[in-house]
Amino acid sequence: MTLLATVIIFGLLIFIHELGHFIVAKRAGVYVEEFSLGMGPKIVSRQKGETLYSLRALPIGGFVRMGGMESDLEVPEGQGFNDKTVLARMSVIFAGPLMNFILAVILFVVVFMVLGVPSDANVVGRVLPDKPAAEAGLMAGDRITAVDGQKVTNWMDLVRIIHNKADQEISLSIVRNGDEREFTAVPQLDPEYNVGLIGIEQSWERHGLFGAIWLGLEQSYEITKLILVGFIQTFTGQIEAEVSGPVGIYSLVGQAMKFGFGTLLNFTALLSLNLGLINLFPIPALDGSRLVFLGFEGLRGRPLDPDKENMIHLIGFALLMMLIIVITYNDIAKLLG
User: Which compartments is it annotated to reside in (predicted)?
Assistant: First the structure.
């Protein structure tokens, strides 16, 4: 299941990215030779109009091959990629990363609307089986108003008190269906975090469409900002670089699946933001470098030598492949201990 989920996630992120390039290229009147999901040998393909739609064997990438960009195929006059204005070409290139940002927002919106977000209310959302709370008789929906006589009005206060009561009997004052009740429980010591736990989870709060959209935009902005800060701190040597390739992501997907579908969706959104942001870096073979070249062309009033530019992208692609191989080796070494 982890392998299947990883393939689906990679496929979705790549498909959405390339779909952005494809849609804007079509809207700009660019001749699109092929829209491919995956790399390597073709598994299935279908010709529709000028474009070949294909699914390839290796789910590690994808591409939109546009006439007049990197191929020698003759295209109708004015429909080649390089025949378009600088602004139109920049729009085509930028559309890929933009779609990854849009996908992340959509995934966050789905989570906030369907699953909700953790509430800070002092209400039990779920009682874990065979834990002190379950043995004491607590139920989902109970509002805990006091612990050992100390009033609690939110989840953080409740957790703070219970964490400090490991292996000590505590009294819990709750309200259930309007009735006040008293329970006793002994929090178990969690050896990993050295805190007391009774086996309850907080409730979740769902949001409406517009509230979820606002939260989705806010979440995407905050995470993007954190990613940028992390990159800056890594490049300046403030923190140690932690990079994961396909194997490392496979492992992280497996961990996310253990916490449920909502966590998996959040993780997918995080990956989508990373993919969109990294593609905007001015690294040869990535969208960011193409935007830089187009920016120079706009300032100079004439394009750079296409052969030289393509050679730079080719070298950059080869270096990226080498980097992925090194990262994959390290990921495998970590998994093997």
Answer: Membrane
